[in-house]
Amino acid sequence: MDDDISLPADTLAILNEFLLERSKREAEEDSQITNKTGKDAHFEEDWQLSQFWYSTETKHTLRDVVRKLLAERTKDSDDFSIALLSCPSLYKDIRDLHDTVHIFEFDQRFEAYGTDFVHYDLNCVGSNPDYLKEHHHQYDLIVADPPFLSQECIAKTCEIITRLQRNQKESKVILCSGEVVEPWLTARLPVLKCSFRPEHERNLGNEFVSYANFNLDEYIENK
Predict the structure, then answer these.
(1) Which parts pass through the membrane (predicted)?
(2) CB–CB of 176/201 below 8 Å?
(3) Where are the domains of the chain?
């Protein structure tokens, strides 16, 4: 019979504290999901899903870019559709500006956002050309933040972006990711690296940058 495994008292105390905090956080989150729906629901990052929320400044910067893009389309802004791919922390600020916003996410907690939520599994993109077919060629602006800094992830993200664009020449694309993905990304989409550097609530080890198929920096510099 194996001996019982015991942890040092200080290690056990740290573990118990972590488990207690996690339990409280999950209980608060469940309560928020139960009592709040739509854009008022709040969620903690899930690091296992590579979720890292943007800083308030970054969220407001991108929100203001969207505001300017909408202002340029004063006559037909109601027909302007926005897709947010794997960047759920942007949703509330963008949704406050515009009604036609869909959040594409693997994490089903975001079903709390109702019909704005689209369950999105990146692994289905390459194997099925009809995946999310009802959303193909529907979006005028796509903001994406691929969950992983791998060539495969970037390739699949580029593929779904191309499918979602209403018009490949006119639809705007903003992509926030690591500097390391630039050669994979620019080989698949007509985007260039911008000066704008997104920031997160928690400091990440990788250098994060932005890419776009239009002059994103011009929209930011003229705030």
Answers:
(1) none
(2) no
(3) 47-221
* CATH among 3.40.50.150, 3.50.50.60, 3.40.50.300, 3.40.50.10960 for 47-221: 3.40.50.150
The answer to whether residues 170 and 140 touch, using CB atoms and an 8 Å cutoff, is yes
* Distance of alpha carbon 39 from alpha carbon 91, whole angstroms: 7
Cα 62 from Cα 90, distance rounded (Å):
8
Where b means 16+ CB within 10 Å and e means fewer, 53-91 reads bbeeebbebbbebbbebbeeeeeebeebbbbbbbbbbbb
How far apart are alpha carbons 45 and 29 in whole angstroms? 11
Q: Long-range contact list for 122-130, CB < 8 A, 24+ apart?
A: 122/86, 122/146, 122/147, 122/153, 122/156, 122/157, 122/160, 123/156, 125/156, 125/159, 125/160, 126/155, 126/156, 126/159
Distance from C-alpha of 108 to C-alpha of 48, rounded to nearest angstrom: 14
**How confident is the chain (223 residues) per 10-residue block, as mean pLDDT?**
57 67 57 45 55 86 96 79 94 94 90 92 90 97 94 96 95 95 97 94 76 96 65
CA dihedral for 130, 131, 134, 136, sign (positive or negative):
negative
